[in-house]
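Hi support team,

I'm opening this ticket because the web form for multi-chain structure prediction keeps timing out on my end. I have pasted the exact lines I submitted so you can reproduce it. The total is 490 residues across two entries, so I didn't expect it to be a heavy job. Is there a limit I'm missing, or should I split the entries? Thanks in advance, R.K.
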Amino acid sequence: MRFSHVIHPNGTIRQRRNRRKQRWLSLGFIVVVLTILLIATRSNTLNWYEFYTFFFSSLISVVIGYFIAALLAVILALASTKNKFIENILVPVLDVAQSFPTFALIPVLLVLFSTSRWVVVIFLVVTIIWPITFTLIAAIKSEREDLSEAATIYGAHGIKRLRYYRLPDMLPAFVTGSIIGWGEAWEALIGAEIIAKVSGVGAYLGKLGENGGVAQLVVGITMYLFLIFVLNEIIWIPLLNYSSRYQNE
Amino acid sequence: MNSKKPIQLLRISKWFDEKGEKLRVLEDVSFTVHPGEFVCIVGSSGGGKSTLLRILAGIIEPSEGRIINMPTELGFVFQNFALFPWLTVHENIAFGLTMADLDKKQIETRVREEVKRIGLQGFERSHPKELSGGMKQRVGIARALAIQPQVLLLDEPLSALDEITAKNLRTDILFIWQQTHKSIVMVTHLVEEAVQLADTIVVMSSRPGRVHKIIKNTLPRPRNTRTKEFFKLVDEIEEQL
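Hello R.K., no limit was hit. The queue was backed up. Here is the completed structure from your submission:
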C-alpha cells in the first residue's frame, strides 16, 4: 500500500492551542475588569452578598429552564422530522407557537402557580425552547445524505442510530441554538422576575431602580452582564469549540 | 444468503414522483454479478448508476423488479467518503462492527488489520478533517472491509481525488480485490478505469438508465493500460455511450 499525500494533523493542534490561548486571554481580561469594578464600588452601598445570592438563585432558574427546554427541543425536533406527514403538521404548529409573545403567558402562569419560582422557570422554558428547536430542525433537514446512508448501511437503526449518528450529527446545531436560547433567557429573566415579583437578580435590580439608586443599578447591571459573559466563556465557548469537531466539511 | 451464488438483478426499474408525474430513473435493468467478479457500471452522468447501486445496497426500494441472492453483509464506499466527522479514523473503521455489537477485542483486532491494510498506522486517533482526500477514501474502504462483507459496492470512489492519488488508490482497490476475492460492483464514468479494473462492464444509457450492453473484459491481468487492445476496448465502449 502506498502511503503518500499525508497531512500531519499539526495544523489542527496549533489551531486548538490558539483557541485555548484566546480563551485564557479573555478570562484574564475579565478578571482585571472585575477587580477594577470591585475596587471602584467598594464604598458603595450595593450589597454584594445579596446581589450574588439573588444572581445564584436566578442562575438556578435559568439552568433548570434550559435543561427542560433543551430536552423538549430535542424531542420536538426529532418528532417533527420523523417523516414528511408529521413534519407537514408539526412544523407549522411550532412556527405559530414560537411567534406567540412569551410575556403574555405570565398572567396565565401567575394564575396557575401564584408567585412561585416555577412561573419564571416555565417562562424561561418557553423562551429558550424555540431557538434550539428550529436550529435542530434546520440541521436535520440539511443533513448530509451520504452520512445518513452510511449510518443505515452500517447498521445504525433505532436507538443506536440516535446515539451514534443522529445526536452527534445534531450537536453543532444544538450548541448554537443553546447559545441563542441561553442569551435570550438572561435577557427575559429580568422582566419576568419584575413582573411576576419572584425573588432573583432581576427583581433585585428592579427594586434598586424603584428606590432611586441609579449608581447602584448601573453597577448591578454591569456586574450582571459581566457574570453572563464569564458563564459564556466558561461554558459555551469551550462547547462551541468542541462541537466544531462534529461539523461536516 | 449464499455468497457462492451469483447476485441477479432482474428487470429493475425505478421512478420517482415529481409534481404528480413519474420521473423514470431506471428501466428494466438486468445483469448478474458472479462470486468474486469485478463488475463496473459505466455511463454518463445522471444515468441512474448511483441509484442502481443504492438499490443494490437496500437503501432505495426498486419500483419494479427484484434482486436475487444479495448478501446482507455488504460494504459501501462513497464518492465523498461519508466519514463521520466526530469519529476518529479508528472509530470510523469500527462503526459497522460497533453497530453489530462485536466485543471490544474483536473490534480492535479487525480495525488493526484494516488500518495496516490501508497503510494508515499512526493516524488511528486523527479525525477526518485532519486527513487528505486519499487518506479519507482509504478509511472509507477500511470501514467497508472491516465488516468482512461478501460484496463491495463502490460509488465513483476515485472521482473526488486528484489523478495521482486516484491512480494509486485504483491499484490498491485491485490489490484488495485480488487479496480478498470479494465480488465488487463499482460505478464509474471513466471508461479507462472500468477497462483497467473490471471483468464485466455494464454500459448504461441515460434518462432513463437502461443496460445498453454488457461487455466481458478478457484482457489479461495485470493489465497494461498502454496496449492496442486496451485502447481498442476503451474506444468500443465509448462508442456505445
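A quick check on our side: Chain A is about 80% helix and 0% strand. Let us know if the file doesn't open in your viewer.
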